[in-house]
Specification:
Elements (H helix, E strand, L loop, with lengths): L32 H26 L14 H10 L5 E3 L5 H7 L3 H8 L32 H16 L5 E6 L6 H12 L4 E7 L2 E2 L2 E2 H4 L16 E5 L3 H16 L5 E6 L17 H11 L1 H11 L5 H24 L15
Parallel strand pairs: 1-2, 2-3, 3-7, 6-7
Antiparallel strand pairs: 4-5
Helix pairs in contact: 1-2, 1-3, 1-10, 1-11, 2-3, 2-8, 4-11, 5-6
The structure holds thiamine diphosphate (TPP) and magnesium ion.
The site of thiamine diphosphate has 13 residues, from strand 4.
Catalytic activity: N(6)-[(R)-lipoyl]-L-lysyl-[protein] + pyruvate + H(+) = N(6)-[(R)-S(8)-acetyldihydrolipoyl]-L-lysyl-[protein] + CO2
GO molecular function: pyruvate dehydrogenase (acetyl-transferring) activity
Subunit structure: Heterodimer of an alpha and a beta chain.
């Protein structure tokens, strides 16, 4: 039998075409006053909630893991502003912001952090494992990259049912190097599944910078081998996120299959609560906070356009602080699950 001629990599005719450059990711949505006020309020709620969660953790009220989202608020808020009722959200362990953005109650999230009965998982899931079918929030996952495959499954369900919902699956720059992400990309592209893959590139995976860990640091190109288009987006500007989200969701809803949004963002706090943060300088964090903070950007715009006064914004802050304080009180006074509940709601 004649030996089969092996094709050289470069001569293969079956190689996937690179994704067409039809998206830029650099558009900025025009917000009216209501949209800017909404974005301001929602981002502030996440920030104040996270600050309080950090305090409660320090006081010993929260056990286990707790990963704060401070700095990245514009990503979930901009995405949520573009989503429709029924679109599913799934993410990793840095998840409190995603939950609040979907409209889940601060009380239920905080009570879950403190392991109480009226937490979203009845106090048995904690920070990384909360769900709300009502708000189409599918977790909260501690295995890096796992939510990408699960989110692809949600998109498969949408296609199978023939509804026009889109699955929005968030993952980090570190997770983007996991193998199951590419198995998911392949299936999603093959079956044209309605899913927006959001890579929250906050520059670090625990203490490892993207520069040290990744061969292709333009994550928006990560789907090109499968023909999945992608955009790099300023994830610190809620209007840029909203504009990219509008395009991406429309792409999915019109049956064109998956799309990737790489959100260029930054986390101000450590990876989790026990992070000495020796892998970056204080100056780096400070520069990001002072020049790109997502909330300050909206605040400055509201004032500059004359859409709100300092007093108006202080009133929003007061309102948000009240919601967070109430959630913290609730999370400390709500009872723990009864002993008889030890074996319910869990997998044995
Ligand atoms: C499969 C698996 N490997 C390793 C870990 C440990 N781990 C937890 S978070 C993390 C870093 C992930 O970084 P990234 O995806 O960038 O998300 P970020 O924390 O920046 O939001 C690692 C390696 C894990 N939880 N699961
Ligand atoms: Mg990261």
């Amino acid at each position: 039998m004649a030996p089969r001629k092996s094709a050289s990599v470069s001569s293969r005719k079956t190689a996937a075409k690179p994704a067409k450059k039809e998206f830029t990711g650099s558009n900025i949505a025009e917000f009216d006053r209501d949209q800017d006020m909404k974005a301001y309020r929602e981002m502030l709620l996440i920030r104040r909630f996270e600050e309080k969660a950090g305090q409660l953790y320090g006081m010993g009220f929260i056990g286990g893991f707790c990963h704060l989202y401070i700095g990245q608020e514009a990503v979930v808020v901009g995405m949520q502003m573009a989503q429709k009722e029924g679109d599913q959200v799934i993410t990793a362990y840095r998840d409190h912001g995603h939950m609040l953005a979907t409209g889940m109650e601060a009380r239920g999230v905080m009570a879950e952090l403190t392991g109480r009965r009226n937490g979203y998982s009845h106090g048995k899931g904690g920070s990384m494992h909360m769900f709300s079918k009502e708000k189409h929030f599918y977790g909260g996952h501690g295995i890096v990259g796992a939510q990408v495959s699960l989110g692809t499954g949600l998109a498969f369900a949408n296609a199978y049912r023939g509804n026009d919902s889109v699955s929005v699956a968030y993952f980090g720059d570190g997770a983007a190097n996991q193998g199951q992400v590419y198995e998911s990309f392949n299936m999603a592209a093959l079956w044209k599944l309605p899913i927006v893959y959001i890579i929250e590139n906050n520059r670090y995976a625990m203490g490892t910078s993207t520069a040290r860990a990744t061969a292709q640091s333009n994550y928006s190109l990560r789907g090109s081998g499968f023909g999945i288009p992608g955009m790099q987006v300023d994830g610190m500007d809620v209007r840029a996120v909203k504009a990219a989200a509008d395009e991406a969701l429309e792409h999915c809803r019109s049956g064109k299959g998956p799309i990737i949004l790489e959100m260029l963002t930054y986390r101000y706090r450590g990876h989790s609560m026990s992070d000495p943060a020796k892998y970056r300088s204080k100056d780096e964090v400070q520069k990001m906070r002072s020049e790109h903070d997502p909330i300050e950007q909206v605040k400055a715009r509201l004032i500059e356009k004359g859409w709100a006064t300092e007093d108006d914004l202080k009133a929003v802050d007061k309102d948000v602080r009240d919601i967070v304080a109430d959630s913290a009180d609730f999370a400390q006074s709500d009872p723990e699950p009864d002993v008889s509940e030890l074996y319910t709601d869990i997998l044995l």
